[in-house]
Amino acid sequence: MTLVPYDKNLINKNLLSKVEIEYLNSYHKEVFEKLNSFFKLKELSFLKKICSPL
Questions:
Q1: CA atoms within 13 A on the CB side of 22
Q2: What is the DSSP string of 1-54?
Q3: Radius of gyration for the chain, computed over Cα atoms and rounded to the nearest angstrom
Q4: Under a CB-based contact definition with an 8 Å cutoff, are residues 6 and 28 in contact?
Q5: How do the domains of the chain map onto residue ranges?
Q6: Which has the closest alpha carbon to 23: 6, 9, 48?
Q7: What is the pLDDT of residues 4-21, one digit of tens each?
Q8: pTM of the entire structure?
Q9: In angstroms, rounded to a whole number, what is the distance separating the alpha carbons of residues 25 and 33?
Q10: Cβ atoms 41, 18 nearer than 8 A
Q11: Can you tell me the mean pLDDT for 17-29?
Q12: Whole-number pLDDT of residue 10
């Protein structure tokens, strides 16, 4: 299985329901938790940024 964060720059939050936003935030949290151990400091900072909540 591949875990890849969604590009938040391409998401119009105003068009999403509360449930959809919660799903995306939960998914990004899972991505970060499962992938963070594979990255070094600089890359980890980037991963944290792109996996932050909407």
A1: 3
A2: -------GGG--GGGS-HHHHHHHHHHHHHHHHHHGGG--HHHHHHHHHHTS--
A3: 12
A4: yes
A5: 17-50
A6: 6
A7: 999 999 999 999 999 999
A8: 0.88
A9: 12
A10: no
A11: 98
A12: 96
